[in-house]
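Researcher: Structure prediction, please.
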Amino acid sequence: MVAIITGDVIDSEKIDAKKWLSVLKEYFNTFGKTPTDWAIYRGDEFQLRVGNVEEAFITAIQIKAKMKQFKDLDVRLSIGLGDEIVGSKNILESNGTAFVRSGRTFDDLRKNKTTMLVNTGNQEIDQELNLYIKLALTGFMDRWSVASAEVVSLILENMTISQEEIAKMAGMAQAAISQRLKRANFEVLMDLNSMFVKKIKTLA
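Model: Predicted structure follows.
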């Protein structure tokens, strides 16, 4: 089982593309090479293969956080879980249920008036997860400030070190890091990720 994330950058034309593209490419490179494991196409659309399906949601969160570090930018993301048909060296030409689910769900984003959806192939699990994701999006994620997005991204990149060490890296007081995380509802986000992982494990 793999996870395929399909997405696009909202209001990408408002920012010099070189700025956000370099951030996106740097992150995607941690998953493999283009065009086998990821691709950016049509200017601001992209597709990413996540080999560990349990990391799919947290990966989507990181993509969102990285783009919301740029004022006025956001992303639409669909997460499709399933199999893949091995053969193509280009992710955009690959196939399998993960790709089909990701693509179809991406098309449903505007219709559902949301910026993130997951499709596992299990309707009951999808309904539950998507409800919680929508509540998180409308409750706080879609309203993250640049400062909140920056600290969320920084924490997600450094989950194995302490907040004190992260504060030193960022040149900030630890109290400031904690306050930003609180405003970003980071603890709730981690609870939601734990639920995602728990649900995904039942599919294996």
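Model: Strands lie at 2-10, 38-41, 45-50, 74-82, 116-119.
Researcher: Thanks, that helps.
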